[in-house]
């Protein structure tokens, strides 16, 4: 039991931090520009494929560095030449643009790398057992993922709280016009934030690719969960996104590890009409738990855990 | 005779389809305090927003001899034009000090003002330097907004309704602050609805009505021009 608890916590935190790498960029872009970027998870997928492609040619570490930068550059270009031009047409146009972009990226990925998963592997330098706890081993690669996510979180925090650019970003979250009137180039800040958000998503993809599966559906699989995270956390709230990421990471990993069902709790004989439901285990429910959480949060607290605006 | 610091000629501006400014013309000399008066809705705020580039202008706006019409707000600001909006727009989550830091412009050294100056002129800001701007009182926020714009070392500062909603004591304080700003060689465009401090500190005044300048003159002349005051200013 203690073993399950320890490993589920570790995995939950890891999954949560990975979600946060995506949610942080998405929520920052949303609060600055008012755009919910549907293509954000596509940047994550691009990060994984770029990482794979570079790993094949140059090795894992060059991919780890170059893939996020390349994805960030693509993100900045998307803002500069796409979203910025659409801005005056309103949010619906921008939303549709990112929606379309997600499809385009998915199709391009299928055309280039095919529909089947690619063989993106954990690098040999990280392919060993990090530690052993109660006879269960924990791979070094997962420790590396966790360390990367924590380092990224620290870097994001320092940039936002301790640098001038961070101050400009924080101020532009609520008063972009005023920030411009003080002589700061707000559109350029938007582009940088969009690019940085894309780079973070790319980094998440590059490190998650070998651990999870790198395939063209990986964006569509993660997208809904990501939206749950930022709505539960509160649209536009970075702290909320952090808490919600960890919460959903933990809920999902713990649920998967649990085999309990109503039958196990109250005996095998189901009350009339509840036959099938009686046998369902918590693990089987795991995939829908985030959405249940979403519904509950929207009913109890429509602004999300730490948000200030109605979602 | 040198060119005026700011020279606006035949300025037109629109909000959507409604034509707000119909050929506004005025000028401000270096070191001058000028007031732009008028009732609500006559286009005073639109005039300064058009000068800043926040509202798209048609016409000529020359600042320090250079045409600035059509520039983006941050480009206008970097040329030395400062704007303090009526709504103050303090960054609520940032501390007073951080608000002031954001007033500084990238790559432009401030020749006139330091943060110590700001704290000396308005000690209350120093006491609250590490408090979030959002919890300051309305009057304190107004002072902070002006100081923040000064940190960018403007040659002309345009202040929208500086005394609105302030207590009589704060109004007097605001008057002294504005005069101190002028003494340091910063020109001021005061946008006001009431005459309270405008008559006291301005060198020249403009009165606006229906999107145009309808009167121009010295404070003494406006005090005697009861017809102008009745028609365009008094409610």
TrEMBL record, chain A:
Gene Ontology molecular function terms on file: transmembrane transporter activity
UniProt key word Glycoprotein: no
Keywords on record: Amino-acid transport, Cell membrane, Membrane, Transmembrane, Transmembrane helix, Transport
GO cellular component terms, semicolon-separated: plasma membrane
Membrane topology, as annotated: Multi-pass membrane protein
Stated family: Belongs to the binding-protein-dependent transport system permease family. LivHM subfamily.
Protein name: Amino acid/amide ABC transporter membrane protein 1 (HAAT family)
GO biological process, one term: amino acid transport
Location, primary (coarse class): membrane
Species assigned in the record: Roseiarcus fermentans
Pfam families linked to this entry: BPD_transp_2
Transmembrane spans: 12-39, 59-83, 95-114, 140-160, 189-213, 219-239, 246-266, 278-300
Keyword Cell membrane part of the UniProt annotation: yes
Cellular localization per UniProt: Cell membrane
From TrEMBL, chain B:
CDD domains referenced in this protein's UniProt entry, alphabetically: ABC_TM1139_LivF_branched (cd03224)
Origin: domain of life: Bacteria
Keywords: Amino-acid transport, ATP-binding, Nucleotide-binding, Transport
Family annotation (Gene3D superfamilies): P-loop containing nucleotide triphosphate hydrolases
InterPro entries for the chain: AAA+_ATPase, ABC_transporter-like_ATP-bd, ABC_transporter-like_CS, BCAA_Transport_ATP-bd_LivF, P-loop_NTPase
SUPFAM superfamilies in the cross-refs: P-loop containing nucleoside triphosphate hydrolases (SSF52540)
GO MF annotations in UniProt: ATP binding; ATP hydrolysis activity; branched-chain amino acid transmembrane transporter activity
One Pfam family, short name: ABC_tran
Domain ABC transporter: start-end pairs: 6-235
A GO biological process held by the record: L-amino acid transport
Keyword Repeat among record annotations: no
Family: Belongs to the ABC transporter superfamily.
Name this protein carries in UniProt: Amino acid/amide ABC transporter ATP-binding protein 2 (HAAT family)
């Amino acid at each position: 039991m203690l073993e399950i608890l320890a490993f589920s916590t570790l995995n939950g935190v890891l999954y949560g931090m990975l979600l946060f790498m995506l949610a942080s960029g998405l929520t920052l872009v949303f609060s600055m520009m008012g755009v919910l970027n549907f293509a954000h998870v596509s940047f994550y997928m691009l990060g994984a494929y770029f990482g794979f492609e570079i790993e094949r040619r140059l090795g894992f570490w060059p991919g780890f560095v170059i893939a996020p930068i390349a994805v960030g550059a693509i993100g900045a270009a998307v803002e500069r030449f796409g979203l910025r031009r659409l801005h005056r047409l309103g949010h619906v146009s921008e939303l549709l643009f990112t929606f379309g972009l997600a499809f385009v990226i998915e199709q391009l990925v299928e055309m280039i790398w095919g529909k089947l998963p690619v063989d993106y592997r954990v690098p040999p330098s990280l392919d060993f057992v990090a530690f052993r706890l109660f006879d269960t081993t924990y791979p070094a690669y997962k420790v590396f993922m966790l360390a990367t996510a924590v380092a990224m979180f620290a870097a994001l925090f320092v940039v936002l709280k301790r640098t001038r650019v961070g101050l400009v970003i924080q101020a532009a979250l609520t008063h972009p016009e005023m920030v411009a009137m003080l002589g700061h180039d707000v559109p350029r800040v938007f582009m940088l934030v969009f690019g940085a958000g894309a780079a973070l998503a790319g980094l998440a993809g590059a490190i998650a690719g070998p651990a999870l599966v790198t395939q063209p559906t990986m964006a569509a699989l993660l997208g809904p969960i990501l939206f749950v995270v930022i709505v539960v956390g509160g649209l536009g709230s970075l702290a909320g996104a952090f808490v919600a990421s960890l919460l959903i990471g933990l809920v999902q990993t713990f649920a998967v590890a649990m085999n309990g069902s109503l039958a196990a709790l109250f005996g095998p004989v189901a009350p009339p009409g509840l036959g099938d439901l009686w046998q369902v285990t918590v693990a089987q429910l795991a995939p829908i738990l985030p959405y249940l959480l979403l519904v509950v949060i929207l009913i109890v607290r429509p602004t999300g855990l730490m948000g200030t605006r109605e979602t | 005779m040198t060119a005026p610091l700011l020279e606006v000629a035949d300025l037109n501006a629109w909000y959507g389809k409604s034509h707000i400014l119909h050929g506004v013309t005025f000028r401000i000399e270096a070191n001058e305090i000028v007031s732009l008066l008028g009732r609500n809705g006559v286009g005073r705020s639109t005039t300064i927003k058009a000068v800043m580039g926040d509202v798209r202008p048609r016409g000529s706006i020359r600042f320090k001899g250079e045409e600035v019409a059509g520039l983006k707000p941050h480009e206008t600001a970097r040329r030395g034009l400062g704007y303090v909006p009526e709504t103050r727009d303090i960054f609520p989550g940032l501390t007073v000090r951080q608000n002031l830091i954001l007033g500084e412009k990238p790559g432009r050294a401030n020749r006139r003002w330091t943060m110590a100056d700001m704290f000396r002129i308005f000690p209350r800001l120093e006491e609250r330097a590490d408090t979030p701007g959002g919890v300051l009182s309305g009057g304190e926020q107004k002072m902070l907004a002006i100081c923040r714009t000064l940190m960018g070392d403007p040659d002309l500062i345009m202040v929208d309704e500086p005394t609105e909603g302030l207590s009589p004591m704060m109004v007097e304080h605001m008057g002294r602050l504005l005069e101190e700003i002028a003494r340091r060689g910063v020109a001021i465009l005061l946008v006001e609805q009431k005459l309270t401090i405008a008559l006291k500190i301005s060198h020249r005044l403009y009165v606006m009505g229906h999107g145009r300048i309808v009167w121009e003159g010295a404070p003494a002349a406006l005090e005697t021009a009861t017809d102008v005051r009745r028609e365009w200013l008094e409610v």
